Amino acid sequence: MLATMGAAIAPGIAILSYFYLKDKYEIEPLHMVVKMFIIGLLLVFPVMVVQFGFQEELQLGVFAQSYVLAGFLEEFFKWFIIYYTVYQHVEFDEPYDGIVYAVAVSLGFATLENFFYLREHGGAAAAFYRALLPVSGHGLFGVLMGYYFGKAKFSVGRTRRRLYLVISLALPVMLHGTYDFILLMQQPIWPWLMVPFMLFLWLLALNLSRVALNRSMAAAFGAHYEKEVEKI
């Protein structure tokens, strides 16, 4: 049990630590990040109940399972919690903060989900696969969601803020649904699709986190800082 718990928790904590420690200017209060991680853990239960209800009542195809049961439901619950807990919070005071809090919620969710899976299908191979795909996938969807939360929070104009809030949900839903669709294809070709897809996600997430961090630093030190960073 302890080995399973360690294997389930370690990937999420590692990825969260990476994005948390990237914020070298004004690191977020640890208690806030832990709180959002725990909320992410607890989100697993209502999501499982809703997903089970849909699966029992409806005969859903691969597309609906991927984009509705997994993509929309899981990302919507995360989005809803972030919007109503930290989006208006005083600690959300720079663009990069959205990434930290969204990643914390997403990885909390992924960690408990990972624990349940490994308890039923344990083993080093399963733990390695789960760390590379589902856990990191949730973390990367969180980066994208948090990036656009940060854009919305610090944008001028109601229309622009609403647009970024819509994107903060729509983009993770689309990418999460695509991820699950590839897995559920049950075709020999799926690894050849998943590898470039995950590489794309990592490159996109790392680039957006860099942009958000530069904006946070520019807000603190002036627009000239962002220009200097772009020269490096």
UniProtKB/TrEMBL annotation:
GO terms for biological process: proteolysis. It is found in: Cell membrane. GO terms for molecular function: peptidase activity. Its EC number is 3.4.-.-. The keyword Nucleus does not apply. It is an enzyme of class 3 (hydrolase). Transmembrane segments: none annotated. It is a multi-pass membrane protein. Keywords: Cell membrane, Hydrolase, Membrane, Protease, Transmembrane, Transmembrane helix. Its main location: membrane. The keyword Protease applies. GO terms for cellular component: plasma membrane. Belongs to the protease PrsW family. NCBIfam families: intramemb_PrsW. Involved in the degradation of specific anti-sigma factors. This is Protease PrsW. It comes from Aneurinibacillus soli. The gene is prsW.
